[in-house]
Design goal:
heterodimer, A: alpha/beta, Peroxisomal Thiolase, Chain A, domain 1, 9-stranded mixed beta sheet, two-stranded antiparallel sheet, 11 strands, about 35% helix, B: alpha/beta, two-stranded antiparallel ribbon, about 20% strand
């Protein structure tokens, strides 16, 4: 079947901050308005809206899709997707098929997460993501299980904490160029290693901070994309995959679901050698080790070899395959329902050539954004081309 | 648009299901759907869509548990919270975009596990100016019903007739746990839960899981000689509680406009309707939004009965089966498929609603 061409023509972000004064609806609308402005569209031009929000408990609102829909979806076709950290990527994929199917022509994706009003701490919301029978009675903390995964990755591929800390150093440095970033900094590997141990081997600076923030994109039918811009960015591949939630029973050193999602997207984008054909990437990095873990799952690097390429500078802004030029979640913060959109928007701006100080040094034609979510089981991949 | 429904399966539709967890209920429904469709989910299905909502489940990011019971592990599973007709719309788009040939939609509900329903409903209102501490979450339906009844000159007896019709229609439906043979007087004499609605005017909650298997036209014809086709689908959102139209279902009109346009459905003749009747008046209000002319008059003249010219909820609707939260849309779709498989009607309209306090609805047009 001949797929309808689909393009991104506008994007907007709010500041990512530990506490924003705006309500979730106000944050969502601010991002939506910016995306519409960049696309040169008004809300009346939009026929379908997708809301992207991860956990209902963050807004403390039941039927949260309806709550956010007020920020752009009034009297339109609206639906919500959610997949934890992968929500923004899934919403982008959803926007792609809203248009590719012919059901909609102009879609507005709005994502937000306001984590700051969770008490006593945003982490407490994650107390209820577990299997209610087999896991909840143990009251696990989310960082515990990522610590297990990080250690398993280090042990399996003989990766050191110093090598992993380089991701944190790189991304926080990249974020210095990002006007929306919350956690930009010039830090050293020693700073990461000497920061407080949260759950060994995870130190505080191995983790992205909790954030408030919103993002939005405008996705349109390819036939009309050039009415709005001379430089549409085409969505040429989408893929997503979900493993089961039994994280305790699977090999944590390698994310097979990431590979499966990537292969689905590569097939659609006709990419056979991702390490040679993709110019810039935004893998999901809520923890520094996750960027390496995902780069391997995406087959940009062989298993266990991402740290070596990182040390060689391959993933630097002036490297062969710049990774997280926005600063990623380590540098920008991680408002969960919007963080996936940050990744998509970063690649969109890179390919469009309007990333400002974030713009990578080499010319870029094909980019990849990847999100990770749910209970360490979900990956969404979006491949874009200019 | 022609997307085939090649398999349906369900479990539950009972006030409580202590024998199974929600995941086991979904597994049972999926097993039946795959048997009905003659497909192997690990081999024949390309994508999955799961529909559930955190607070109903008591689990944050509740979609995490979607893949296992439907055979979706390590496969593309999309998680869409909302009414399950929204999930059907996503599945149709998977197929129409060409990324999938066969897509499975799952939705479930286990309200018997929920011990704080009133508080959860309170959380659906705006946290700043919508949470007024209402002791009875049906109050919004009461206001909506009064406005609708005043505008359309609908009487309490008309609402009672909807109840009598639907509860009687469900008597032959194995899912009709709440069906019964009542008189209009028996309904009208019940005390109000909220004016003008009695407990019999309100669909009770029910535990249920429903799984539907969809396929593109080419594949559907391989699996079955008589698929039911989805020829149009639409979803509409009006606004928040404070700003939406009370007394009319603008959300469903928006959804119907889209679905009917796609399906090229211009005349509502020889069409059976499977319409949300969470509250008795909603059936009439929703029919109005679907452009059925003068539904109250048609009700009084017997046209909306199962043997009438325009059957509405001939299998009993939510008033007979109960309301399975997010799975409500799939419950109506399931009724439509079973009814059409009997060969009585070639066209059906399924119209679902998210329930109070939302103003969101979905419409699917089915043809045989």
């Amino acid at each position: 079947m001949m797929l309808r061409k689909v393009a991104i023509v506008g994007a907007g972000l709010t500041l990512f901050r530990r506490r924003l004064k705006e309500t979730p609806q106000e944050m969502a609308w601010e991002a939506a308005r910016k995306a519409l402005d960049e696309a040169g569209l008004e809300l009346k031009d939009i026929d379908c809206v997708i809301t992207s929000a991860a956990l209902d408990a963050y807004d403390g609102v039941h039927m949260r899709g309806e709550h956010i829909a007020h920020s752009g979806g009034v009297r339109k076709t609206v639906s919500r997707v959610y997949a934890g950290g992968a929500t923004g990527g899934m919403a982008t994929i959803s926007a792609w098929y809203h248009v590719a199917s012919g059901l909609c022509d102009k879609v507005l994706v709005i994502g937000e997460e306001k984590m700051s009003h969770a008490l006593p701490h945003p982490q407490s919301v994650f107390r209820y993501i577990w299997d209610p029978i087999t896991e909840k009675p143990l009251n696990p903390n989310l960082i515990w299980i990522f610590a297990m995964e990080m250690y398993r990755y280090m042990k399996t591929y003989n990766v050191s904490k110093e090598e992993i800390a380089l991701v944190s150093v790189k991304n926080k440095r990249n974020a210095l160029n990002n006007p929306y970033a919350q956690a930009a900094a010039n830090i050293t590997v020693d700073d990461v290693l000497n920061s407080e141990v949260l759950v060994w081997p995870v130190n505080r600076l191995d983790v992205s901070p909790v954030s408030d923030g919103a993002g939005a994109i405008v996705v349109v039918n390819g036939d009309v994309a050039r009415q709005f811009t001379d430089t549409p960015v085409w969505i040429v591949g989408v893929g997503w995959n979900m493993d089961n939630p039994q994280w305790s029973n699977r090999e944590l050193a390698y994310a097979r679901y990431v590979e499966e999602s990537a292969m689905m997207a590569y097939k659609m984008a006709k990419i056979e050698r991702p390490d040679k054909e993709i110019d810039v990437i935004e893998p999901h990095d809520p923890f520094d080790y996750k960027e390496l873990h995902h780069i391997e799952g995406l087959k940009i690097a062989k298993r266990g070899e991402a740290p070596k390429l990182l040390k060689e500078g391959v993933f630097d802004l002036d490297g062969d395959i710049p990774s997280s030029p926005s600063g990623g979640l380590m540098g920008c913060g991680n408002p969960i329902g919007a963080s996936g959109l940050l990744k998509v928007i970063s690649i969109y701006w890179q390919l469009k050539g309007i990333a400002g100080r974030m713009q990578v040094k080499k010319p870029v034609y094909t980019g990849l954004a990847q999100n990770w979510g749910d209970l360490m089981q979900m990956s969404a991949v979006v491949i874009m081309r200019r | 648009m022609r997307v085939g429904i090649i398999g349906v399966g369900w479990y539950g539709f009972t006030p409580s299901t202590p024998e199974l967890s929600f995941r086991e209920m979904v597994f049972e429904a999926a097993l039946r759907a795959y048997e009905d469709a003659h497909v192997n989910p690990r081999r024949d299905v390309d994508t999955f869509v799961s529909c559930q909502e955190d607070f109903w489940e008591g689990i944050s990011i509740s979609g995490e548990f979607a893949p296992d019971p439907i055979g979706g592990t390590l496969r593309p599973v999309m998680t869409v919270p909302g009414d399950s007709v929204q999930a059907i719309m996503h599945a149709v788009m998977h197929i129409e975009s060409g990324i999938s040939k066969v897509t499975v939609v799952e939705s479930h509900a286990k309200p018997s596990d929920i011990i704080t329903m009133e508080k959860i409903m309170e959380f659906a209102y705006d946290p700043l100016y919508g949470r007024i501490g209402a002791r009875n979450f049906h109050f919004l339906a009461g206001l909506d019903a009064v406005k609708f009844m005043e505008r359309t000159k609908t009487t309490k007896e008309d609402l009672a007739e909807v109840v009598v019709k639907n509860k009687r229609n469900g008597l032959k439906n194995p899912r009709g746990s709440y069906s019964s043979s009542l008189s209009i007087e028996e309904v009208v004499k019940q005390p109000y839960v909220v004016y003008p609605l009695t407990s019999l005017d309100i669909s009770p909650f029910t535990d249920a899981a429903v799984v539907i298997v969809l396929a593109n036209e080419e594949v559907a014809r391989k699996y079955t000689d008589n698929p039911i086709w989805i020829t149009g689908v639409g979803v509409g959102y009006d606004s928040t509680m404070e700003l939406s139209d009370l007394g009319r279902s603008t959300y469903l009109r928006l959804a119907a406009d889209k679905a009917f346009k796609i399906a090229r459905l211009h005349r509502l003749e020889n069409v059976a309707f499977f319409v949300d009747d969470t509250y008795s008046y909603k059936e009439l209000q929703h029919l109005e939004a679907l452009k059925v002319q003068d539904p109250v008059k048609k009700l009084r003249e017997g046209e909306l009965y199962a043997d009438g010219k325009t059957p509405v909820n001939p299998l009993g609707g939510h008033l007979s089966e109960g309301r399975p939260l997010d799975a409500s849309g799939l419950a109506l779709l399931l009724d439509a498929v079973e009814f059409m498989r009997r060969g009585e009607f070639d066209k059906a309209v399924v119209a679902s609603w998210r329930g109070v306090p939302s103003f969101t609805g979905g419409v699917a047009v089915l043809e045989r």
